[in-house]
Amino acid sequence: MGNIQFHNNKVLFANNKVAMHADCCCDISGCQGCSGDAPEEFSASISGVGDGDCDPGDCDAANGTFVVSYISGPGATCLWRYTPSGLTICGVSDCYLELTIVLIGGVYYCSLIWRSSSTLVVGWEKKPGSAFDCMNLSGYSLDPAATVPKKCEETGSTATLTAL
Q: Which structural domain, as residue segments, surrounds residue 45?
């Protein structure tokens, strides 16, 4: 018998049972927005975010390379998140970076958003014509999100995803 397996301080389950072996849960199955399995983590590289009308001007904190880890799914919506301690962007405290890969009404959608529990700060998105090949994403570019209310300016910024 093996040891109980944990990820991000949470007990892992495999086939509705407590996971007891390290090779139980390397990839995620069942994310409907992915054409196959999904990785436990993605690298998200963001550059070019500016202050725009933000006061105080601290939107540069949104730039950098971050690792988002799987937190929720599988099913129609799968989520990955990076949660730094006490990050404030454009006056919004406790910001985190969230990656969502989802299938809604037959439309595949991917979004990467800096947000708090109640406020969207800045984001990027992509709506491809088919499911994402999540395990093989490498340098996958997202577009500035027209649907995210802006606190920071993302015009001219870049956001790319790479499966780890």
A: 26-163
